[in-house]
Structure formats: structure tokens, C-alpha cells
Amino acid sequence: MDDEEYQGALGDWGDEEYDGALGNWDGESSGGGEESGAIADVDSGDIIHFKINPESIEDSKDTSYANIEIPGMSHPRYQFTGGGERVLSFSIYLHEGAGDDVGSSLKLLRSWLYADYSEGKLNDPPKKLLIIFGDNWPDEVWLLRSLRITHNKLDKSLNSIYAEAELEFIEFIDESIGAGDVRA
Known about the structure:
By secondary structure, the chain is α+β, with helices and mostly antiparallel strands. The protein has a single domain (3-183), classed as Elongation Factor Tu (Ef-tu), domain 3 (Beta Barrel), CATH 2.40.30. Helix content is 17%, strand content 43%. It is built from 4 helices and 9 strands. It has helices at residues 3-10, 15-22, 102-111, 179-183; strands spanning 37-41, 47-50, 57-68, 77-95, 116-118, 121-124, 128-132, 141-154, 160-172. It has a 7-stranded antiparallel sheet with strand order 2-1-7-8-9-4-3, with helices on one face. The chain has a two-stranded antiparallel sheet with strand order 5-6. Strand 3 and strand 4 (77-95) form a beta hairpin. The protein is elongated and about 70 Å long.
């Protein structure tokens, strides 16, 4: 995304509109109006707001089957063996000129990839996260699996003022869900 595209996507957002869109997130979708997105830590409530929505979002899931070859048949038989992981991928754009605290947001994103340790012992695994885009994924919990940051513009002290963060999440599920749960 170049500067013109960025400014076009930013539109006429002012601080008041942004504060009303997802400020003080309470666990519910903000509903209506101009919305942006956010990613929130389920336990601590730490949250990253971003004013520019991703250009695209990829949501994929695999299912595993055992391939059973039958002598004389043109095709194998398949037996369901289990569900594979569900992956959500997208990029967010952070820009100081749009009111984003780029440095703090990138540090928080990076911290969500790490477990917490003390005295060489694991205290907590990496954080469970909520992804907030309108009414999409309202009750789904995710783990950040991958983060790739591109620092597109830097200030004279080499601090990032415009960055793209490519994110890949995996869905965190405690108990198996079925097709009916997905359709509900």
C-alpha cells in the first residue's frame, strides 16, 4: 500500500470518530458506523486498535483423511481421521499520522508470540487473543503464530512511523466442535 492508497483508505477519520469506534472495548462488537479493527489479549485486556482495515483476510481450515487404496478400484476410499488447524491471516497498517502508536503496538504484537518465564520456568504460554472486526469471529479465541513486520517509513531516529504487520493466527479450541456449531 503506497501513501496515496493509505490516505484514501484513511479517509476523513478524526480522533473523535476513532475514539467512538472501538475505544474502551468492552467485549462486544462496536456495531454500526465507521469501524476499524482491534486485537485484544483475553486475560490482560491489552488491546491494539488499528484504523485501516486489512485489504484482505484469509480464513482456512484443513481436515485429515486416511487414504485407503482398494485393489481394483479406480479411486481410494477416504476415512475421516480428524480436523486440522484453522488459520486466519491478514495484514494491518499502523501509521503515526493516523494516531496509531506504531512502536508500542509492534512491541505488544511481538510480545504475544512469547511465553512468560521466571527463574527459567514457564509461567504462562503465549497469550490467547480476540480478533475484533465488526461481528466476525465474536466468540473465537486465537493464538498469534506468526508476525512479519515491514517498517515502511522511519523518522530521523529510525523509529517506525508507518509499518505493515503481517499476522497469522491459529484458532484455540478446548473441545471439539461439529458442523452444527459452525453453522449456528
